[in-house]
Amino acid sequence: MVSLSAGSSSDATAQLGNVQALNDIGINATAAATPGGLDIFGGALNSSVNVLGNALNASASGNVAMNALSTAADASLQESSGAGATIDPGAAAQIAVTGADYAVLNRQSLADSSVTGTITSAFVGIDDMGPAGFVTTSVAVEGNEVLSSATGNEAVNSLVLDTGTFQHPSASVASLQTTSGATISATTSGVTIGIGVSSTLSGASNGSSFSVRGNSVGATAIGNSSVNTISGN
User: Fold this and answer.
1) Residue 85: which residues within 8 A CB-CB, separation 6 or more?
2) What is the pTM (predicted TM-score) of this model?
3) Would strands 83-87 and 95-100 be described as parallel, antiparallel, or unpaired?
């Protein structure tokens, strides 16, 4: 992060550049939960039994960057002659900015590599209530998440121009991401979410409520992800 601040006015120029390259590499994230959920062998009376808001994640990433440039002046940000910058000038895939007072440049490459996120098994919930059962009891398995993810290149690029009265500078955000010969994959398997799944609910359930909702199971694979913003006031 680069931050510039002036007491009254500023006619400065600034550039922030990021270069990341990964070649012939393997990146793996693996997770597995121990089989079996919550066991209430003694049952429950006039109670609440909840499995809420748990998360099991396996996340693998190649290149990750957060590039932030901000400039501020109490009175004004003035326009200047601007500046230029080039990343990888000799490469076939290059990134260049010209004539910008403020610039953020991002260049990421992933080649001949693998990025893998894997979840192989998980049980989220209530497995058994025992012979006593649940009596006038609320039982809930809600808002739980099991997610594997893989991302090749990921960047968040931001440029903020902040002045008290008026501003006239030029600004630019440029991002170039490439994947070549790369394998990016995510797998989630063997997941169970619920109440009394792996064994029977052997007890009585008098006057009780059961809820299984808002849970999620997923796998997400993304090659390139970039969020670019320019803002000012």
Assistant:
1) 15, 17, 96, 97, 103, 105
2) 0.82
3) antiparallel
**Residue the block writes with tokens 């066991």:** 39
Burial per residue of 6-42, b for 16 or more beta-carbon CB atoms within 10 angstroms, e otherwise: beeebeebbbbbbebebeeeebebebebeeebbebee
Q: Which of 18, 181, 183, 27 is nearest to 111 (CA)?
A: 181
Rg (CA), the chain: 26
User: What is the β-pairing status of strands 183-188 and 83-87?
Assistant: unpaired
Domain segments of the chain: what residues?
A: 2-232
Q: Which residues are CB-neighbours of 206 under 8 A, at least 6 positions away?
A: 133, 134, 135, 136
The sign of the CA dihedral 18, 155, 166, 101 is positive
CA distance 69 to 86: 17
Residues 131-161 have pLDDT tens digits of 777 889 899 999 999 999 999 999 999 998 8
Residue environment code for 196-225, b if the CB has 16+ CB neighbours within 10 A, otherwise e: bbeeebebebeebebebeebebebebebbe
Alpha-helix runs per DSSP H in the chain? none
